[in-house]
Each structure stands twice: as structure tokens, then as C-alpha cells.
Amino acid sequence: MASMKSDHDVLIIGSGASGGMAAYMLAKAGVKVLMLDAGPSVDWDKKRSMKAVWDLPYRGFNQPGRFPHVTQASEFDANMWIEEEKHPYSHPDDDPYYWVRIRMIGGKMNRWGRASWRLSNYEFKAKDHDGFGDNWPISLEDIAPFYKRVEPLFRVSGRNEGIPQLPDGNLIMDESRDSLCVQRFIDSAKKLGVPTTKARRATGTLASSLNLLLPDALATGNLKIVPDAIVREITTDPNTGLANGVHFVDRRNRREYNIPAKIIVLGASTLESTRLLLNSKSPRHPNGLGNSSGVLGHYLFDQIYVKNTVTAVVPEAKAGKAPRGLMGGGGYIVRFRNLKEKQAKFLRGYTYDFYSGHGPQPGQISAYGAEFYRQFRDINGACFGMTTMGEVLARKENHVRINPKLQDAWGIPALHIEHRYTDNEFNMAEDAMNMGMEMAKGAGFEILTAHKEVVPPGESIHELGTCRMGENPKTSVLNKWNQAHDVKNLFVVDGSSFVTGGAQNPTLTILSLTMRASEYMMDQKKKGNL
């Protein structure tokens, strides 16, 4: 094994939302940073090309069987996604888990949907509200100053509505007008006591770590990025138990390296970070690094995702007869369940994205041949749709562990993932379907299809938990600063630190937590505590 030398003060593993933000904060503050990422550095201008659908062997669809768990992949972007032949994992045969991964500089932020919602104290202090699970060791008030700084950095647009369960943000105000069909839907929702707002999303062509964080960090001269470095293990000092370096393997030539580290920031994404910690065993850490509590790997959760929960048709828009201003646009329905009135069948709540002006999916029309085309033409462009995102309860039994019989292409032990939804999630999805239909009918729309089928766990790509933060070292892995209880020079800053997740997309919170942890790290370093 070759040893590498470096003058870095902090070693970061991962270059996505959390790793990128850590590099941005530390390098700009004058800290020498070395970043390792398991994927390549991609020149987007040189590597992309325009091709017509008919020039692709599978006409834009994937080669059958190539991506069994990545429903998002297509032939246009197939080389972005991880192929499970080289990166396997296991799950029970009757409980599949869809682990969706990208390995390249910038991570999954290269393909994120840019939805940028704040969490509220309904999430941070969920146990206080309904008695289930655990509270975060922080509140909205602790992280709000960091939300306020991240939002303009990512140019988040939206509207402030003064809704407690969706805290106002430091936003570029979205003053766009709603189409007539969207106005009708909003009025229908309002009559049922359901709050709506504009989408909040990071603006720009590629609002990501790759173009908003890493370039500024590199420009300081304080950041060095090593691509194609697959970290096998975090090593520790046998006397102190502190992290002192990493072993990694070059993705291309499989050569092994060791590099020392004074402080490690782990941001490889929820499951990869936890896999690395579980694989980093030593006499001082026999159950995995930082796992004296035995909690590492437990409390895996994401968000339920019901695609096209309700698809309706706006009657006036049929047969291409929509008057100007009727169709187009969309919005967001804020959580409205279990705030004041308790639901009998489920805890927590759900949200919707809604959108208009599109056509139906082929499977939504029960006809064939000429009749199919006639019906399709009649409602093409006249559809109104809703997709549900709902909170999943963090349960200890939903967990990951190392599968000793399974290794990736580089000989690193793989994960076994066990995650099951319960009646709480299924009842929530049913309620979302029923409420969606009621709102659509109230707007004068005709229901085309409605369903409550939840996609398998993991498909939302919002995996969270497994390395949770908390006040008590016996029931959590990290403290409120994303610092490992057992290993004070190790910080885990990705979604694995979450205690609850609500129904909101988690990226804005990951970025804000990392900014907060980075400033704490620098303060502790100045005080000589690191």
C-alpha cells in the first residue's frame, strides 16, 4: 500500500451537497482541504453531445436489466448512474430497496430536482408534537441563520406565506401569475383548509456543488480534489481512538493508498457514509467507527413517493380548445394533516407537487389502436396532475448492516438493507389520494386516474438517518454539531445525521447543517480542541 503525503488540515470524503459545502466554507476561511471522491471529474462541455432518439439503440430507454433499481435512468444519461454489477447490495427478496447512486464530482447534486424547502419545528421537535420517536437536538431557531445564508447562495425562488409548518425563507420572490386552472385548484384547496404556495427551488441551469461551491473553494488555492478515490476504511489511532487517516483504492487501476488525516469530514451520502463507518472496525471501535451506542445503521427512512397520485382533465381544455391562460404552471401543497386535529389512521403528514398542461401517460388510457390515439389527442395538453411526498417514521428496525458475503468490484464489503413501510405510510398515501381527488373535483376537473401505490423505499432518493444526531451518546452517533460522540475529529454532515425528515426535500437542510458544522469545526480548531 502506497502512502500519500499532504499538508491538508481537513480531509473531506464526498463532493456533493455536504462535501461541497464543507469545502466551500473551510477553503474560503483559509483551511487547507483535501477532498476524495469515488467518481471521476467530468468535463460537461466535452462529454455531452446531442443525439436524436432514433440514433440510440434502445430509443432512449435503457438496455433491459441494466438498472434494476434506478427508474430515473434513461439511455440519454445512463453513464451517470451506478451499475449494480460493480456496486452490489442486498435486501430481502420480498422487500426491495431501490438504492439510487451517482459517483462523480458533484455527486447526486448533478441531477437533483432543486426543490429547496426548510424544515420546521414540526420536524425538529416532532416528538413534542405527537409523542413518536425522538426530537432533534436542535430547533428551527438554531439552523434558521444558516438557511438564511444558503438560500441566496443557491438563488432559491419562491413565496413567503407565513405558514408555521413551512418557515419563510430568504428568497427571490416568485411573482409569476397562476394560470386559470391553477387558480381554480388553489381556490378549491382553500375551501378545504389546505394551504398552497409556489414551488421553492434553486434557480440556474445547474445549481449544484459542481458550479456553485467547488469553483470558489478551488479558487482559494486551499482545496485539492482527488477523483476516482474509493475510500475503503477510516483508520484510527490505537491509543486515542481518534481518526488518523484513510485507506482508499484507485477506481481505475485498483492501487491501494493510505493518507493521514487530522480532521475528517464525511459526506459520501447517507448509506455510503454509514457503510464506510461500519467497515472501519478496530479494537477501539469493534462495531464500526463511532458506534459505541450500537445505533449506527439503524433508523433508516426516506419519504413515501406516490407518482401521479391524481391525474385529472380540465374539461375546457379538451381537443386543443384551451383558451389562452387556462393551462400551464403548478405549485405546492403544504402539509396540513396532524397539525391541530389528529388523524385516526396515521401520524405526521404529506405534501403534493401539482402541475398542469401536460398529456396523459399511455397506461392511463384504457383503449388500443385508433381509439387510443383519439382519446390521447382529445386530452393531450389538458391534464392536471398531483404527486405525493409523505413523511416516513424513523423506526429502529429499518436498518443497514454489512453483508460479509457480498463485495463490490474493489473488494469492499457491501451493505444489506432492510426497510419496510408500515400502515402509517400506506394510510397516509390513501388519504392523499382521497384528498387529491376531492380538491380536483372541487376545481371542476374530471378525474382520469387516481391511485395510492407507493414506490419502493429508496426510489425517492431521499434516504436519511442511520447516523443520527442526539444529545445522548447511548442513543445517537453524532452530537448537535454533526460531530461523532466517540471520535471528536470526525464529522458526518450528510443526510445520515437526520432524526426526522418530514415530507420536504432534504438538500437545503443538508447544506445548512454542513455550513453550521463547518463553522463550529473551525471554532473548535482555533481553540485547540481539534
Mind explaining what this structure looks like?
- The chain has twelve helices and 20 strands.
- It has two domains: 1-42 and 104-112 and 117-153 and 208-300 and 463-530, FAD/NAD(P)-binding domain, CATH 3.50.50.60; 155-206 and 304-404 and 420-462, 2-Layer Sandwich (Cholesterol Oxidase, domain 2), CATH 3.30.410.
- It is globular and about 75 Å long.
- The model has no long low-confidence stretch (mean pLDDT 96).
- It is α/β, with parallel strands linked by helices and 530 residues long.
- A six-stranded antiparallel β-sheet has the order 6-14-15-16-13-19, with helices on one face. Strands 8-3-2-12-20 form a five-stranded parallel β-sheet. A four-stranded mixed β-sheet has the order 1-11-10-9.
Mean pLDDT over all positions: 96
Helical amount: 10-25%
Strand arrangement within the widest β-sheet reads 6-14-15-16-13-19
Using only C-alpha atoms, the radius of gyration works out to: 24 Å
Number of domains: 2
CATH topology title of the largest domain: FAD/NAD(P)-binding domain
- Please work out how many helical segments DSSP would assign: 12
Overall shape: it is globular
Multimerization state? single chain
The parts where pLDDT drops under 50 for at least 5 residues are: none
Instruction: Give the CA-CA distance, first to last residue.
Output: 28 Å
Question: How many DSSP-defined strands?
Answer: 20
Report the major sheet.
Answer: 6 strands, antiparallel
Structural class: alpha/beta
